[in-house]
Amino acid sequence: MKNINSNTPKNTDEKKKNWSKTVLIIISFIIAIVIWFSATQMNQTQIKRIFSDVEVTFRNTDSLERKSLTIVDVKSTTVDVTLKGYYSDLRNISSDELSATVDVNSITEAGTFQLTPVLSGYSNDVSVAGTDAVEVVVERIATKGITANIEVVGTPREGYAFVEELTEYNPEINIQAPKSVADAVTGAKLVLDVTDKASTFNATLNVIFLDSAGNEISNSSITSDVESINVRAVIYRQVTVPVIYDGYIVGSPASGYRVVSTNVLPSEVTVLCEETQEAQIRDGIPIEIVDIDGMTEDYQAVVALQLPEGVLMASGQGDNVSLVVDIEQIITRRVTVTQFEFFNLPEGMTAMPASGQSITVTITGAQSEIENLTESSVLLFVDLSQATEGTNRYNITETQLLGVSNADTYLSRDWISVIVETQ
Q1: Residue 254: count of CB within 10 angstroms of its CB
Q2: Distance of alpha carbon 347 from its chain centroid, rounded?
């Protein structure tokens, strides 16, 4: 019988495979034990974990309002918090589940406060190891009265004007705001659009708050007793008319004096009126009565206009004018005239004064106009339309004084002898 050896190659391979399986089983078992041990250890030792950007909310803000206080600034609306607990308790917590609440009930005065929020949104197995403080700025609520003014935009229809002094609205506004905001508000405006307007109209205008530089302030912390104001905007006709002084200067200068000229500046004024009044003022606006009785010198004064009731001066114009009444002494001067002005001489004839013809003209008028008159300034006109050949008398038909606006003249005679010849 043949002897078979148990250590054949085939048996050796099987033994190796069995050994590898055994080793793998042992290693897997060891790893499982390690994992189990690690997990057990993590739940037996507390750890800390930081949660960032947890939203901050405020509690008891109404208690601030009752104390006339308000929050004006929060340096950060999120905080970082540190929680302490076992890994299994911390691993499922997220920042979104946490909330940080700041109670402001203890604040009784204005100032800057560092407040520690109370954290919620985690289990009782977890504790708070640390939380950022929240810096809160609190101000006292101030009450203030301001005045609203109208800001006009656009242009009324041609021939019309906006009349601000007659426009009706209540400009007084009361506001409440944190003191720093209230201090910055110095006024308010109402924007009124008058584009192409030709009659009085009503409008409801929003209140726009302004600072001292006229810049708009938009702040949600401002509350006011009104948000808009009703305005009755008045639109009048705009008319340019002359200034009337004739008939409104009364009295006469002293004996031996006379009025040389009268001037008023401006000679026209622009006024505003209702359309029903336009016809009444078209001829002009008169000045107040001026009495020059007995005067010997020029009268110069600022004189008020007599505006009918309801008529106003246009923007930029005063309700008065400058009046100048030139008053001069009356003098008499005699000028001998030897040169004459012929006209209407029939065709084919010539004319010349007879020898020695002269007329003395006595002139009475203002000194400045009369005292320097010469013969060349005095023109005597003779109408020869009925002339016949020979020497005949012809009447002086017109007297002109060059450079003289107002004077009385007297001729020593009203005729001259003229020699007319046929050519």
Answers
A1: 14
A2: 75
Determine contact, residues 323/301, Cβ cutoff 8 Å.
yes
| For range 150-163, the mean pLDDT | 96
State how beta strands 268-273 and 235-244 pair. Answer: antiparallel
Contact between 382 and 416 under an 8 Å Cβ cutoff? The reply is: yes
pLDDT of residue 39: 54
Q: Report whether pLDDT(1) > 60.
A: no
What would the two tokens of residue 244 be? Answer: 């009337």
Task: Output the pTM of the full model.
Answer: 0.63
Q: Is the dihedral of CA 247, 252, 253, 257 positive or negative?
A: positive
CA dist., res. 264 & res. 303, Å (int): 9
Sign for the CA dihedral angle at 48, 49, 50, 54 comes to negative
Contact between 233 and 197 (Cβ < 8 Å): yes
pLDDT digits (tens, 9 = 90+) for 10-67: 556 666 666 677 777 777 777 776 665 555 555 567 888 899 899 999 999 999 999 9
**What would the two tokens of residue 303 be?**
């004189």
Contact 50, 93 (CB under 8 A): no
- Cβ distance 211 to 186 under 8 Å? yes
Identify the bridge partners of residue 342 per DSSP, sorted by sequence position. 382
**Are 366 and 401 in contact, with CB atoms under 8 Å apart?**
no
Record the tokens describing residue 314, joined without a space.
Answer: 């246009």
Cα angle: 364, vertex 366, 370; to 5 degrees: 65
